[in-house]
Amino acid sequence: MIKRLITSVDVARHAGVSQSAVSRAFSSNASISPATRAKVFEAAAALNYRPNRIPAIMLSGRSGMIGVVVGGLSNPFYALALEHLTISLRDAGFQIMLVHVDDALTFDTALDQLASYRVDAVITALAVGTRETARSLTELNIPAICFNSRIIGRGISTILSNNYASGSLAAHIMQEQGVARPVWLAGPTRNAASRERRRGFLEAFSARQGTGKIVTELQGDDTYESGFTAIREYLRQNHRPDGLFCSNDLMACGALDALRDHGVFSCPEDVMVIGYDNIPQGAWHAYQLTTFSQNLATLVEAATEILAEILSAPAARISQRRVIEADLIVRRSTMRTAPTS
Fold first, then answer.
1. C-alpha distances in angstroms, 36 versus 6, 229, 236?
2. Which of 7, 255, 257, 268 is deepest in the core (most CB within 10 A)?
3. Would you say 231 and 244 are in contact if contact means Cβ atoms under 8 Å apart?
4. Element holding 158 (H helix, E strand)
5. Residue 275's closest CA among 255, 300, 299, 259?
6. Where are the alpha helices (DSSP H) in the chain?
């Protein structure tokens, strides 16, 4: 026997109130006395009633649903970002629609899915990849908040790690330790955050050393395998780097394993290594990687603040650019002298 669905009429009858009172009780901005609301909630709990959100969505044009676009989850940084985002949005009372894309850098391919659902906004650790996508978001009137996106537009905001300053600091750390043969291991060329880290690193070395090529540049793709392969091949050519700055921690872990596998260099005595993202694996005993933390909690807090502003004034088409300083996390991979403790 199929159990009949409990409706607002049943709740009203059980609570001894009108059906409209039930509707008002489940509306956050409706006028209703606390005593009546409590009576309705008590009846709803007794009957195991769940309100149908569709009528409210149709009336208000707001779903209370936030699209969270994810990709590249093989990188622990994006998995951590997803965890922080979903917890923050849940605690703020939003419903979450999770959209996965295969691209590890941009959420452009999610546009059709987002347009098919009535989401109030989009938050993602991925970037807007093209101006065309930015225009489409604006035309669809879907506010978006992205991490480390160089491209923004009306209704599109970005929260950036201070990638340039971090790259510059990595260079200064190596210069202070006497690094003479620095190597930069880049992420994909279309990764704007990686390009800014590179720019800070190279310009800081050039400013200290003068003109001429100071830093050797190697290409990776943000994966562990690409870091391992790039450094293995570089060492096989009899190069002797003494400082390595990697665009992210996954590549840095691969690079450390390639150094260990080569058997000639020890870290940090012969070559110091710095990563970016502060993923949990970087703190493992085998790596003890010095890195930059993007301060995910701060990034997410900024995102929820911008989201609140967007939803309070949707016609304003708010667009913001906030820069969050990254924290240097010092571990064994840059300590020329091993700690005594």
1. 20, 67, 77
2. 255
3. yes
4. strand 156-161
5. 255
6. 8-15, 19-25, 34-47, 54-60, 76-91, 111-116, 131-140, 163-176, 192-209, 224-236, 249-262, 296-312
Rg, the chain, Cα only: 25
- 269 vs 117, more confident: 269
The overall average pLDDT reported for the chain is: 87
Closest among 307, 306, 272 to 291, alpha carbons compared: 272
What is the distance between the alpha carbons of residues 246 and 197, in angstroms, rounded to a whole number? 9
Highest mean pLDDT among 46-60, 91-105, 256-270: 256-270
| Burial (CB count within 10 angstroms: exposed 0-12, middle 13-18, buried 19+), residue 172 | middle
Specify the amino acid at residue 35.
A
C-alpha to C-alpha distance for 55 and 12, rounded to whole angstroms = 17
pLDDT digits (tens, 9 = 90+) for 43-84: 888 888 766 554 554 444 455 689 898 888 889 998 999 999
Q: How far apart are CA 15 and CA 40, in angstroms?
A: 6
Identity at 339, one-letter amino acid code: P
Euclidean distance between CA atoms 20 and 198, whole angstroms: 60
pLDDT band (50, 70, 90) for residue 216:
very high
> CB–CB of 175/207 below 8 Å?
no
Sheet with 65-70, side-by-side order of all strands: 95-100, 65-70, 121-124, 144-147, 156-161, 321-324
Q: Is residue 305 classed as helix, strand or coil in its secondary structure?
A: helix
Q: What value, to the nearest 5°, has the Cα angle with vertex 195 and ends 192 and 197?
A: 115
Instruction: Report whether the peptide linkage leading into residue 268 is cis, meaning its omega lies within 30 degrees of zero.
Output: yes
